[in-house]
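Researcher: Go.
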Amino acid sequence: MNLHEVFISSINSIRQNKLRSFLTLLGVIIGVFSIISVMTAINVLQKSVESNLNILGTNTFYIQKYPAIQVGGSAHWKYRNRKNLTYDDYLKLKERYSGPAMISAENWHNGDPIKFKDKQTKNSVIIQGVTPEWEFSSGYFLESGRMISRTDMEQMRNVIILGQDVIDVLMPQYNPLGQTVTLRGVKFQVIGTLERKGSIFGQSEDNLVILPLTTHLKMFANRWTSLGYSISVIDMEHFEDVKEEIIFHLRLVREVPLTEENDFEVVSNTSLIDTFNQITGAIKVAALLISSIALLAAGIGIMNIMLVSVTERTREIGIRKSIGARKRDIRNQFLLEALVLTEIGALIGIILGVLAGNLVALSMKVSGVFPIQWAIIGVVVCSVIGVIFGTYPAVKAARLDPIEALRYE
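Model: Structure:
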């Protein structure tokens, strides 16, 4: 028999025992599905993170009290007990540092609606207090009007800049410039509007308003208020040098002893991606372990069904040997049957896994992905399982004595 005939014979054998074959395939499908769905979802997230992490800008890093991503709750108290990053610290840092970078400070909260005439926003609007340098590091651009000025800061003026989502809710038919909106009963004059930025991770970035930081602190600061400092580096060649120098000066400002670690976090696009990859790396390992167990169980099931198949087809094997079939023909047929079983399961598992994983992309409104590397790995692993667990039944079938096989009832 040539390879094509062996393949056709294997398919026919599987089709003759559809239910048994499906139950055997189920283990392979579950194993491949679990790994492919997890890897697809992670790839979707990684693609979204890498393409959308312009929150800081490629030339910007951020300093804050807490890490950007916290894993586990035990370390929360360590970070909570740190001194807050204050406006006074910011002014001292700016005074000490004169290198090629713009340093801005900001603070934000939500929970307060913005009102205009008989309309008001939901409580989800981000109310952000910023310094004038914010425009160089935020990734936002003015559509009209002007940015927060140094005078606005010094005089704690009640001026405000609106994001497009806020404009859509409050005054879609008006020119926002010069209008008066109300926040916690305080009137603010609209001095500018921001260009629409879109969404990241399925969340709109246009649902915000901008105030002078001093005004924001006057209205909303409390004992837990800790600012964030955004540093926009003018020349990317000096990015690391600027970061080290800023850290040095901020440690001096905050009187951190030489023997102690920083009492603040430095966050950049690279550090966010690295932290994200560490988390997803652990998820990948867990998914691999779970899938390996499922595939091992599937391999045992394949060996079992192939042994049953050898027993059921003993007489057929005897007939084939009596008319000239060689041992390797018999062995190849049963081995190929095991391979076909596992590959069908792998194919179904890959299709279902990709569909399930890309539901994440659909929910986040980002483009889907196909994890080609993991699909190949899935096929290869299933092939190995088919060979390993199909070899013993195939060898057993090939070694059957043709005379004894013909007598088998």
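Model: The mean pLDDT is 83.
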